[in-house]
Amino acid sequence: MELTGTTTLLVALKAEAQPLIDHYKLKSAQQHPFPIYANEQLKIVITGIGKCSSAAALAHTAAFFSILPNHIWINFGIAGHKDHAIGTAASVSKVISKSNQQTWYPNLIKLPNTLVKPLTTYDTVVDDYVDDTLCDMEAAGFMSAGSSLHIKSECLFVFKIISDNKLANAKNITKNLVAGLVKAHIPTLEALIKKAEMRAQDARNFELEIGSELFEKWHFSQTQKSQLREGIRRFRALDKQTLWQDMELDNCATAKDVIENLNRRLQKLLPKF
After folding, report:
1. Is the dihedral of CA 207, 213, 216, 219 positive or negative?
2. H runs (alpha helix) in 66-172
3. CB atoms within 10 A of CB 60
4. How far apart are CA 118 and CA 133, in angstroms?
5. Least buried of 20, 110, 116, 190, by fewest C-beta within 10 Å?
6. What's the pLDDT score for residue 244?
7. pLDDT at res. 4
8. pLDDT at 1
9. In whole angstroms, what is the distance from residue 38 CA to residue 266 CA?
């Protein structure tokens, strides 16, 4: 079976999924072992609570369906924070597993009126909010499974809505509260998905046009690939005559050398004031 859409959301709770199911008129595609709702553009997987459930749901979905190149995976849902107001949306820049301090770096897209915060995944519900991070119970499992399955980090996103804090802890969370928070942020989620899909398509086009030849010769990390893509875009804008193939890269021993070579050329092309 093929995922015809380009984005899959993984949420822990049916209450997080229901406003999206209703809004996008998603149909049930599977109920066991994990409920999946879908249309041609979007898939939602209800994982259940906890990092093990989140990891298992991602692994099952990736194995059961044929995943298209640069498919977008988003861990979406509620999270706590000690200070920030309930209803605040946040793009997650770093995920930390509280139990073993392992860390991952999901792709990051900054959106208007949205925080950028690290997140700590706990094994139990948090009520003391010690860390100055978002807190949840799923993101570390999501990132761990994505890494184990060799899903590109640029295709993994974590996006949360704050549902509890020191003034109103997790015991106050209700299905109606969760549904209201999600419904209010559907436009923000749509903006994230659109930007993520555009970024993924740009990366795919770059790899087809330029990257495959370079990547065969040098090993680039995902961060270096992004730096290379942006550098070549700027190079093309400043010098429309020179091809990237003519950039004298033969003396470069590593991917870092390639990027430094490109940056030196860019500095020479910048206008002098």
Report:
1. negative
2. 139-148
3. 17
4. 5
5. 110
6. 57
7. 44
8. 43
9. 45
pLDDT, position 70: 79
Pick left, alpha or beta for residue 173 (phi over 0 → left; psi -120 to 50 → alpha; otherwise beta).
Answer: beta
- Structure tokens that stand for 272 in this block: 């002098």
How many residues are present in the chain? 273
Average pLDDT per 10 consecutive residues for the chain, totaling 273 residues: 70 98 94 91 95 96 77 96 97 96 93 96 92 95 93 90 96 96 96 89 72 78 79 72 64 89 81 58
Structure token pair of residue 245? 């193939």
Hey, CA dihedral for 25, 29, 31, 34, is it positive or negative? negative
Asked whether the beta carbons of 12 and 46 are under 8 A apart, the reply is yes
| pTM of the predicted model over 0.90 | no
- 3-state class of 212 per DSSP? helix
Instruction: Specify whether the CB–CB gap between 88 and 112 falls below 8 A.
Output: no
Give alpha helix (H) positions in the chain. Answer: 14-24, 51-64, 139-148, 175-184, 186-206, 212-217, 222-238, 255-269
In which element (H, E) is residue 79 found?
strand 72-80
Asked if 129 contacts 81 with a C-beta cutoff of 8 angstroms, the reply is yes
For the chain, domains (ranges, CATH) are: 7-200 (3.40.50.1580), 218-269 (no CATH)
Q: CA dihedral defined by 257, 262, 265, 266, rounded to 10 degrees?
A: -140
Q: What is the largest CA-CA distance in the chain?
A: 64
Element (H, E) at 120: strand 115-121
DSSP summary character for residue 271: P
